[in-house]
Amino acid sequence: MTSTGFTSHQAAAITGASLRQLSYWRKTGLVVPSSQTKGGHARYNFTDLIALKAVRQLIVSGASLQRIRQNISSLLRFLPTLKQPLSEMSLVATGDLVLVFHQGSAFEALTGQQWIFEVAQLEREAAKIIDKNPEPYQEVLNFDDEAGSSSNGLAQVGGWH
Amino acid sequence: MTSTGFTSHQAAAITGASLRQLSYWRKTGLVVPSSQTKGGHARYNFTDLIALKAVRQLIVSGASLQRIRQNISSLLRFLPTLKQPLSEMSLVATGDLVLVFHQGSAFEALTGQQWIFEVAQLEREAAKIIDKNPEPYQEVLNFDDEAGSSSNGLAQVGGWH
DNA sequence: ATCTGACAAGAATGCCAACTTTTGTCATTT
DNA sequence: AAATGACAAAAGTTGGCATTCTTGTCAGAT
Q1: Is there a contact between B106 and A92 if contact means CB atoms under 8 Å apart?
Q2: How far apart are CA B141 and CA A58, in angstroms?
Q3: Alpha helices of A4-154 — where are they, by DSSP H?
């Protein structure tokens, strides 16, 4: 059985975390390497690296470890269950959460909750409302206004929380 | 000059906010309709609706108005400057910030800061490190491990903050 | 119809002090 | 080379209380 994986040094170099941090996160269970040598030395696999990088990025983004803890372990549980190739996945580590972008939709790493907002939705909503209550002023349907909205539709916000 | 735009009622119905909220947000400057009737009645344009929907979504996502204030006004300033059609844009309103997804990259609405993480980056980093420090254990480059990483690359976290 | 003003409940924020967590550094061990 | 242990500095959290912000509801004005 060859012991594959990244050493602490390598993981630190790749993810930008310090060895001390890796050690502490290991000890406190935030990110535990998926395997280790017979002598007890850490060996991180690539999924571990993803978690480490996410933690590192969250810290850089201003989150505290205690907040991060809520996300990362569930992210690690979340990743292996993904059917689609991870290559099409992006992680966005913001203030204090991790968003997983995958195949055109977004999930919140903590809950797996869907988070993306379909582009056409706000526009459709607007059109629907206008149909029901035709207003005295007529040009309401003309979205090509001074705000820069081009004719082919706009941004949209929506979703279900 | 025809007064185009959405009335308060319409804007409320489309975005899900209450009339009282629209009123308060108007009064406090969070989202001010871009025009109004001679009688002083609000007329929201589509860009305003985007902002309203974003605010609404942030509230639903658990953010407080006071946090939201930091984002929305800059979002409104941000939108009209976009050269690309807004149709290709998505907004993700998370905990307390707005991410603008546009043409494969992400911006934080407040600062316009780039936020997306290129897919190949973590993998490239890993390969680079391995090249420099060839390890005793050899299979480190084999990312097809039990964690579900498929052969065509993995997730990635990165970016510049 | 839509806005404004006024009252009140509920939520969020700021501040401060005690406490806990996180990280660096360095010495020691395996 | 890598992990562990110990000490200390820096940063983050908690709880309580006063203050401020948000929102609903309702009455009145345009």
Answers
A1: yes
A2: 26
A3: 8-15, 19-28, 46-60, 65-78, 121-132
Nucleotide nearest to B41 (CA to C1'): C2
A89 and B150 Cβ atoms separated by less than 8 Å: no
Distance CA A1, CA A6 (A): 16
Q: Are A11 and A17 in contact (CB under 8 A)?
A: yes
End-to-end CA gap in chain A: 46
Q: What is the pLDDT of residues B39-86, one digit of tens each?
A: 999 999 988 998 898 899 889 888 899 989 877 888 888 778 877 676
User: Class of the A8-108 domain?
Assistant: mainly alpha
Token pair for B107: 């911006």
Rounded to the nearest 10 degrees, the angle between the axes of helix A19-28 and helix A46-60 is 110
Is the CB of residue B60 less than 8 Å from the CB of residue B98?
A: no
Residues of B whose CB is below 8 A from A135:
7, 10
- Of A64, A67, A57, A148, nearest to B79 (Cα)? A148
The separation between CA B41 and the C-alpha centre of its own chain, rounded to angstroms, equals 30
Other C-beta atoms closer than 10 Å to the C-beta of A12 total 21
State how far the Cα of B24 lies from the Cα of A50, in Å rounded to an integer: 43
Task: Give the number of residues written for chain B.
Answer: 161
For A3-54, what is each residue's pLDDT tens digit?
A: 478 999 999 999 999 999 999 999 999 999 999 999 999 999 988 998 898 8
Place of tokens 């803890």: A69
* Domain spans of chain B, in order of start: 8-108, 117-161
